């Protein structure tokens, strides 16, 4: 597709995020370069971004936001588009760029196809990032109607501009010259073509070739694909138990690239067997159609959409061992011609070019309009909690005074600081002229949750931002959170945290290039049972959230007030979005609450919030679900 679009006059870039370096002497990089396609290797492992699952999507977003593309088309699997799409929905970037998803094999579909269940935190996170990317994209394109129908039936929200377009069947003159329309003069070798995994039909293929229907038949077998759920030794073991006479006639080609596998099939005279249990629009089918390679496949998923109606019955069978064995038995020793594609290259080319021409063209927003978008009728209150840290409090207030948007109330809640130094700091803050409206509250010491709730009760502002006195807001924190809430219509907006460890002094802005960052997914609800995937307390909240679920918990000596609130909000159906950028410095100290309080007591508070949603006889299911909560795989 990249080659075709570049040759059609488009400026095309392929952004590769794999670990291995690009081999520019390999055939595909050479083809791309010759066609004017730009290849960029973006090392998505760089940077100290936590949790690790967010690292790739954040690195991709940070690179793409520096570009000026009309369209970015993302792969669906593992959600690489997630951060970029959240950024667009919240007004951070891509106002003039169309963000699209290529729906080919999302995790939710793969789980069902491989007959697997969700077994870890990483998969829950992946399901969330992919689902949010689909629903938030400007466009979705898939190589089959089947996949779009499956997504909708499964409950996935898709944008109105969702289209099925076949893969572009690119051919060069060398391909066309080598295509033999007559195909095989006699089928004598069967080549399983695809990854050696259950979904691709390796078990189905083995059952067929080892069945009684093929006993006594004369044929060779080659497995042409990389090991996955099955390895060559496993396959040899299965064959050796049921039909040892076939072992000498079995071979494996597991290291061939795409071109090498196609070359092998053309030169060996083997019949490619592609017995997928379920599939979308397998690349191997398109490759066989393009190269004129004879193949036999199954009536599953989107495969029939790729093949000409005149050939469907001849080259496709039901994905059952008996059906496949019967068809193979009838083909052995017989000639077999390649199938024809349902679409011809010129037709597919016109479809793709027409689709590109019809994409929505975002309006170039004048600067004056962009500023107007940041004006809101909803009043904002920033609630800062403080206890016995007057030096740090002053730094926090200075950071808030430097905001690009200062039309807010600042409510400073002192949680019963006993020292004279703390009282002097509060008095100095009261007597100083600030760009925001300051109100100081002196409360008795009742812990962090109670202090936040006191500030919450003292204001009727519609939008509420919480800050702790040891953290430092970036200059655009208030403006960015406010705009993100308006544009996304979320109930809660959180953001990444930039970590620093200086106990007395502010962070050096230069540290932002190298420091650790901690980000959040904003969900899903299931993952929030075992890790805080929602966000820190520092974020912006609609008042309706607290009216719906109540305030922060006030249990003395127990932390995770923010996680507990976020979890209850999610359980109540409120929507959280977490921005893929840091908006404040989070001071990590060895005396912090997350370190000084009991971890089990803290997390038990979260578990109880979930258990309370279940009937009494099912509440212990929460215990089973969080057995890995303290050593989860997303740290």
Automatic annotation (TrEMBL):
<dbReference type="Pfam" id="PF13579">
    <property type="entry name" value="Glyco_trans_4_4"/>
</dbReference>
<dbReference type="Pfam" id="PF00535">
    <property type="entry name" value="Glycos_transf_2"/>
</dbReference>
<keyword id="KW-0808">Transferase</keyword>
<feature type="domain" description="Glycosyltransferase subfamily 4-like N-terminal">
    <location>
        <begin position="5"/>
        <end position="160"/>
    </location>
</feature>
<protein>
    <submittedName>
        <fullName>Glycosyltransferase</fullName>
        <ecNumber>2.4.-.-</ecNumber>
    </submittedName>
</protein>
<dbReference type="GO" id="GO:0016758">
    <property type="term" value="F:hexosyltransferase activity"/>
</dbReference>
<dbReference type="InterPro" id="IPR029044">
    <property type="entry name" value="Nucleotide-diphossugar_trans"/>
</dbReference>
<dbReference type="InterPro" id="IPR001173">
    <property type="entry name" value="Glyco_trans_2-like"/>
</dbReference>
<dbReference type="InterPro" id="IPR028098">
    <property type="entry name" value="Glyco_trans_4-like_N"/>
</dbReference>
<feature type="domain" description="Glycosyltransferase 2-like">
    <location>
        <begin position="382"/>
        <end position="548"/>
    </location>
</feature>
<dbReference type="Pfam" id="PF13692">
    <property type="entry name" value="Glyco_trans_1_4"/>
</dbReference>
<keyword id="KW-0328">Glycosyltransferase</keyword>
């Amino acid at each position: 597709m990249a080659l075709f679009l570049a040759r059609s006059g488009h400026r095309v870039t392929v952004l590769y995020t794999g670990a291995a370096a690009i081999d520019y002497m390999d055939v595909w990089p050479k083809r791309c370069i010759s066609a004017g396609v730009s290849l960029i290797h973006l090392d998505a492992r760089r940077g100290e971004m936590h949790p690790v699952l967010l690292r790739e999507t954040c690195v991709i977003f940070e690179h793409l936001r520096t570009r000026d593309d009309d369209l970015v088309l993302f792969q669906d699997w593992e959600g690489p588009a997630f951060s970029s799409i959240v950024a667009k929905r919240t007004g951070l970037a891509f106002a003039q760029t169309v963000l699209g998803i290529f729906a080919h094999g999302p995790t939710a579909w793969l789980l069902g196809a491989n007959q697997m269940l969700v077994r870890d935190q990483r998969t829950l996170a992946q399901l969330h990032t992919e689902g949010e990317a689909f629903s938030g994209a400007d466009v979705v394109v898939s190589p089959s109607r089947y996949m779009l129908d499956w997504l909708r039936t499964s409950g996935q929200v898709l944008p109105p501009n969702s289209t099925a377009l076949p893969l572009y069947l690119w051919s060069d003159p060398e391909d066309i010259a080598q295509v033999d329309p007559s195909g095989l003069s006699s089928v004598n070798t069967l080549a399983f073509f695809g990854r050696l995994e259950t979904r691709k039909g390796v078990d189905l293929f083995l059952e067929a070739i080892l069945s009684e229907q093929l006993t006594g038949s004369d044929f060779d077998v080659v497995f042409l694909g990389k090991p996955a759920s099955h390895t060559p030794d496993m396959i040899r073991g299965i064959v050796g138990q049921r039909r040892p006479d076939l072992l000498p006639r079995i071979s494996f080609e597991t290291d061939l690239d795409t071109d090498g596998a196609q070359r092998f099939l053309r030169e060996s005279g083997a019949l490619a067997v592609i017995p997928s249990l379920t599939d979308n629009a397998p690349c191997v089918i398109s490759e066989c159609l393009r190269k004129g390679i004879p193949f036999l496949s199954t009536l599953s998923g989107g495969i029939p959409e790729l093949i000409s109606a005149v050939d469907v019955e001849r080259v496709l069978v039901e994905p059952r061992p008996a059906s496949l064995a019967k068809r193979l038995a009838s083909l052995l020793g017989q000639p077999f011609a390649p199938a024809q594609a349902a679409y011809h290259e010129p037709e597919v080319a016109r479809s793709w070019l027409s689709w590109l021409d019809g994409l929505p063209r975002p309006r170039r927003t004048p600067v004056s309009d962009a500023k107007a978008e940041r004006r809101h009728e909803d009043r904002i209150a920033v609630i800062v909690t403080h206890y016995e840290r007057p030096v740090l409090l002053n730094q926090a207030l200075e950071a808030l005074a430097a905001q690009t948007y200062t039309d807010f109330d600042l409510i400073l809640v002192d949680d019963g600081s006993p020292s004279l130094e703390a009282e002097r700091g509060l008095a100095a803050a009261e007597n100083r002229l600030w760009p925001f409206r300051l109100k100081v509250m002196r409360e008795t010491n009742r812990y962090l949750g109670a202090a936040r709730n006191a500030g919450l009760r003292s204001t009727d502002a519609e939008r509420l931002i919480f800050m702790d006195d040891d953290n430092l807001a970036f200059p655009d924190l208030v403006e960015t959170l406010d705009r993100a809430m308006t544009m996304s219509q979320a109930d809660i907006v959180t953001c990444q945290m930039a970590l620093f460890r200086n106990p007395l002094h502010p962070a050096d802005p230069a540290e932002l290039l190298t420091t650790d960052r901690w980000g959040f997914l904003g969900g899903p609800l299931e993952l929030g049972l075992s890790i805080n995937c929602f966000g820190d307390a520092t974020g912006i909240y609609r008042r309706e959230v607290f009216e719906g679920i109540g305030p922060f918990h006030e249990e003395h000596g127990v932390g995770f007030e923010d996680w507990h609130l976020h979890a209850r909000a999610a359980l109540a159906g409120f929507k959280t979005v977490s921005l893929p950028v840091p908006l404040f410095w989070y001071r990590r100290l060895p005396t912090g609450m997350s370190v000084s309080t009991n971890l089990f007591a803290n997390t038990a508070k979260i578990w109880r919030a979930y258990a309370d949603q279940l009937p009494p006889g099912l509440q212990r299911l929460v215990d089973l679900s969080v057995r890995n909560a303290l050593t989860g795989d997303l740290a």
